[in-house]
């Protein structure tokens, strides 16, 4: 069974990092979802930590949309201003 993909923008920030770490650290969710993190700072220590947990990290500058392959990724947006939850992820 292949995993569903969760793409987290701003993966090195507080909100994006907490979502990525929540999915990667939860036994059930990490079996269901792969995490792709998008950041403009791929060399910081937070990125290394996420990679060690299995996240795929992509460098992208959202201020330069011509260099960002959104259309190829078939994205479904999930905006969360509170903590991540299984209910939200299961709706995807």
Automatic annotation (TrEMBL):
Signal peptide: none
Species of provenance: Penicillium rubens (strain ATCC 28089 / DSM 1075 / NRRL 1951 / Wisconsin 54-1255)
Domain NmrA-like residues, every copy: 3-64
Short name of any one Pfam family annotated for the protein: NmrA
Name the record gives this protein: Pc16g09520 protein
């Amino acid at each position: 069974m292949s995993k569903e993909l969760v793409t987290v923008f701003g993966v090195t920030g507080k909100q994006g990092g907490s979502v990525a770490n929540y999915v990667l650290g939860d036994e059930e969710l990490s079996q269901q979802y792969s995490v792709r993190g998008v950041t403009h700072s791929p060399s910081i220590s937070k990125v290394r930590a996420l990679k060690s947990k299995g996240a795929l990290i992509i460098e992208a500058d959202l201020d330069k949309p011509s260099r960002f392959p959104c259309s190829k990724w078939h994205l479904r947006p999930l905006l969360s201003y509170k903590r991540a939850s299984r209910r939200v992820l299961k709706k995807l």
